[in-house]
Every structure is written in C-alpha cells, then in structure tokens.
Write a sequence for this structure.
C-alpha cells in the first residue's frame, strides 16, 4: 500500500510540471520558459488550484482545476489529472480526482471540462468512469512541408487580387490601427467558431487580448498573413513557432469575415503562409479543427495535412451525476 500525499503546487514544481507534460504528451512538448510566461500572464482573478501528488517525497502526479478565461462561467472549470507512466494503475489518479471533486463540489461546480486524445485509452477510460462524456471532437492534422501541395498558390493569389484584396503579412501591414483592426476581426470571426454546446466565448478586452501576444517572444508577425480590402482586415491565417520544436509551426486562427467568404481567401492565405514557412526551412506544421468544420478541413486536406488521433473534449455535468 503506497503512502500518498497531496500538497499545493509551488513555483519550485515548474520543472516537474514541464517534464511530466512532455512525457505524457511528447507530440505537444512545452518548455519551462513557455510555462513561466503563461503563468505570468494568467488572470489573477480566475480560480486556480494545483496539487502535486508525492510518494516518499517524490513527485509522481499532478491535479489541477481552473476557471476558463475564454469560456468563463463561475461554476464551470477545466480539470486535469496527470500521473507518471510508471506510477499509473496504482490508484494515484483516483486519489487526486477525489480531492479535486470534493473541492469542486464545494464550489458548486455545475460543469467540468477535460481533454484527451482518442488513442489514450487509459486516460479516456478514467474520465468515462467518472461520468465524463464526449462533447466535442477536434481533428488533429500534421503536414510535412516537403509533401505540401502548394500548386494552387498562383491562381489563389490571382483570384484574390481580382477581387480587390491585398494579401500581406501582419508585420508588413502599415495601418496605424492594425492592432485594433485585428482585434475587431478576431472578435467577430470567433463567434462563428464551433464550440461546446451551451457555451459562449467570453472575448477579452483589447488590452487583455494583446498583452500575452506582446509578451510572447516566439510569435512572428511575418508569419501572420492578412487579407485587406478597403483598409480593413477581412481575412487571417496565422502560423506560430513551437519553441520546443524549432522545425515546427502550429497553425493559429484561420478565418474570413462573413461578408467576404466564398472568395477563396482562406485557401489563398493558408497557401501563402505555408509557402513562406517552407521557404524559411520549417519542416512540419500542425493544426487542429473542430470535426464539424468541413470547409477548413477540406482546405487542409487539399494542402496535404494528414489526420492524426483526434482530441476529445469531455464534459462532466453535475445534473447528470445525481
């Protein structure tokens, strides 16, 4: 019988958190600097509790729950339980969950969220056994840039030009109010993004939107491509460097303003961004799309993205547990 203790996490646990994440999610690695920056830019008014599980003074697992900034509700929380692979199957995850559940019930939680890859059978079973059900599915895809089909770039650019659109990087775009334009565009376009049932986006203020962006030294505005017409941003496709994988980019937001859809802008921006990434010597690009987002999935399929195991967004509802 192992003697397990749970204690609140401290800043000294950051290296353990990073190492555990990278062991459990080798395809989505992070760095200590990334986690430190995320912590520094986190809203202090959101509830966050994190616990470290120890056996004989050795850290073997983590548990966390937090309110979500982009889908805020005072009684809804994201939760996560992680255990070192060699310590799994010994009741440690169960013990962590019981602590989190007790505290969340005391906070009158009505809904919990957690994510898991569809091929992580142990983790998926853990959630299902505790009343979580799949609520949303995200199709993960990966592209080897050497195999990318960029043959449609010239015709896509010609179509955009004929429609009166200018395609350029956000770094090149010289409008003095370009940050306000991008914020307004993102706020509007995000409302059309698929999201879990009964949830709404709580879009941040202008200042809150830009603070973590400006604080991230990895972001490169010359890899953000925008479509501009009549002095306004009407389309966007972002690629962001992955600090733990220098040869890899992660797709950010790709979208078109409602009044400018079906003009081929999303495809043109995507091809332009990927062409620039390939020119710079990047090797891989990753992306994720809601499984119901057929138009964007179709674009990614044309370019050559290969489906990977899906990410499942699981939900626990208090009303379903009674």
């Amino acid at each position: 019988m192992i003697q397990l203790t749970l204690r609140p996490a401290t800043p000294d646990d950051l290296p353990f958190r990073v190492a555990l994440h990278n062991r459990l999610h080798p395809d989505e690695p992070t760095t200590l600097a990334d986690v430190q920056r995320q912590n520094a830019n986190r809203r202090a008014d959101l509830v966050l509790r994190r616990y470290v599980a120890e056996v004989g003074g050795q850290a073997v697992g983590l548990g966390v729950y937090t309110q979500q900034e982009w889908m805020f509700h005072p009684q809804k929380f994201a939760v996560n339980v992680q255990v070192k692979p060699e310590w799994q199957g010994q009741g440690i995850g169960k013990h962590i969950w019981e602590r989190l559940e007790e505290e969340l019930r005391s906070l009158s939680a009505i809904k919990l969220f957690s994510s898991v890859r569809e091929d992580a059978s142990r983790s998926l079973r853990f959630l299902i056994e505790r009343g979580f059900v799949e609520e949303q599915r995200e199709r993960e895809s990966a592209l080897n840039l050497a195999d990318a089909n960029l043959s449609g770039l010239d015709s896509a650019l010609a179509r955009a030009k004929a429609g009166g659109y200018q395609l350029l990087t956000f770094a090149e775009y010289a409008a003095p109010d370009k940050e306000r334009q991008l914020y307004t565009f993102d706020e509007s376009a995000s409302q059309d993004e698929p999201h879990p049932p009964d949830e709404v986006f709580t879009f941040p203020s202008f200042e809150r939107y830009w603070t973590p962006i400006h604080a991230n030294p990895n972001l490169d505005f010359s890899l953000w491509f925008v479509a501009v017409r009549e002095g306004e941003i009407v389309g966007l496709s972002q690629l962001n460097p992955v600090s733990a994988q220098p040869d890899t980019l992660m797709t950010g937001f790709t979208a078109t303003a409602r009044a400018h859809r079906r003009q081929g802008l999303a495809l043109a921006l995507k091809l332009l961004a990927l062409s620039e990434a390939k020119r710079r010597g990047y090797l891989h690009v990753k992306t994720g799309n809601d499984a119901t987002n057929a138009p964007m999935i179709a674009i990614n399929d044309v370019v050559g993205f290969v489906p990977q195991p899906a990410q499942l967004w699981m939900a626990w509802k208090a009303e379903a547990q009674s």
Notes: Residues 4-109 form a domain with the Aminopeptidase fold (CATH 3.40.630.30).
